[in-house]
Design brief:
With about 110 residues, the chain is α+β, with helices and mostly antiparallel strands. It has a single domain, classed as Winged helix-like DNA-binding domain superfamily/Winged helix DNA-binding domain (Arc Repressor Mutant, subunit A, Orthogonal Bundle). The protein is built from four helices and three strands. Helix 2 crosses helix 3. It starts with 15 loop residues before the first helix and ends with a helix.
């Protein structure tokens, strides 16, 4: 079964028509920032991507999931409840929007 955008996100308040573009954009911006492997706090990621910290946290969790590429997200405790996060990109993992682009390109051939 082919995965569609509607299969990617879920939740009790989730509405695909309202949320898919926004959530995919969040995930892309966070991934594009974090793919450099630098350690950052949620507040730093939120500031640099202009996304709410709770959304940053949720998208980092998504990146660990198979359908988001099975990337490693490392967490390091700094103290006083503060953590930093590092993304280790799975070279064999592909993000959902990359799969859709490559699938579309293959169908043109």
């Amino acid at each position: 079964m082919e995965e569609t955008q509607r299969d990617l996100f879920a939740g009790s308040d989730y509405d695909p028509e309202r949320d898919d573009v926004r959530l995919t954009g969040q995930c892309r911006r966070i991934f594009d920032l974090m793919r450099d492997g630098k350690w950052r706090t949620l507040a730093e990621i939120a500031y640099l991507t202009v996304e709410p910290p709770a959304s940053v946290s949720a998208q980092l969790r998504h990146m660990r999931k198979r359908r988001f590429g099975s990337h490693a997200v490392h967490k390091r405790y700094l103290g006083d409840g503060l953590y930093t996060y590092q993304l280790e990109v799975n070279p064999d993992g592909r993000l959902p929007w990359e799969r859709r682009v490559s699938h579309a390109a293959e169908s043109i051939r």
